[in-house]
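User: structure tokens for this one?
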Amino acid sequence: MIYKIGTEESKRYDALKALMCIFVLFIHGFSQQYAGQVSGTKWWLYQITFTVSRIICDCAVPVFMLISSVMLFSKPFRWWQNVKKKFRSLVIPYLIFNSLWIVVVLCGRFLSRKLGVGALDIVNFDTRSPLGWVNAYLGFGGKPALTVLWYVRDLIILNLLAVPIKKLVDWLPIPMLILTIVMWFVGVPIPVLGGYSLVAFIAGYYLVKYGLHLEDLDRKLKPCLMTAVFGALLLADILLKRKNIYVHNGFILLAVVFYLRFSSKLLRFEKPVKIIAPAGFFIYLTHLFVYVVLKALIGDSFYVYFGTYFLLPAVALGVLLSVFYLLRRFLPGLLTVLVGGRKPTAAGRR
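Assistant:
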């Protein structure tokens, strides 16, 4: 069966990526340091940011991973050719930005000791041992030095495993589906691979294998029922403060399907999608650098944090879009290297 992604479906995937890019900005704009330290009005302010960043936006990476999987499996590929392609599109940007982050945080540590400003020391790996440096790049049992790169790392690993994953699903479709659902709710005990990533990647192949397109979801999933269940699970997750893993993972699973189902509604925002979607990977790789600078400039207090919570992602988005399009205009070769050779075309034609 040929799985062809049409023009409208391609636009819907681009719209999803633009929305999830904004979600990622909100995820990393959240500050956990005020948890348990606020009460009264402050508690409600904190709860708003927690709900947006830690619950509503938490489906961003699973959506990204599922789209990446669909794009990969929708066309025939050879394992070695795909590995060579992903070395350029994933491994090189991963190494560049992780190394750049390590340089930045080590400079911050140096300045913190010279100036006596502890806030500048944000090194999150052991610099005293070879294993610490290896962990800074691979993130054993967690994340690499530039923490957002765990998604890129997982995508690299899953592309290496793409052929055996495909063969397992083709050979044992029902058992693999059951195993995938179980893994989603209980987690995957693999040191350098997140459960969200593996399950979303496998799910992408199931869509391709059974020829399920976004318009099929439009026909089969009733919007009123979807919205009602989405709202009920969201409320339950909020009330439980994301502490029940089964409720939270159930909500994230439903949220992924919900946004796929209603992605056609995003097409009305064609102009911003056309601006954000091509820059999505660049924004994902670089936004923490901008956040570090912005947070250093605005200071750190609860009211500063809440007052700039919705502003910070907007400013970061504006800055990074400006940088992206300036690079595309004046230094296209450098931009090509930084984003792994990606071209700003529709999702289905990549």
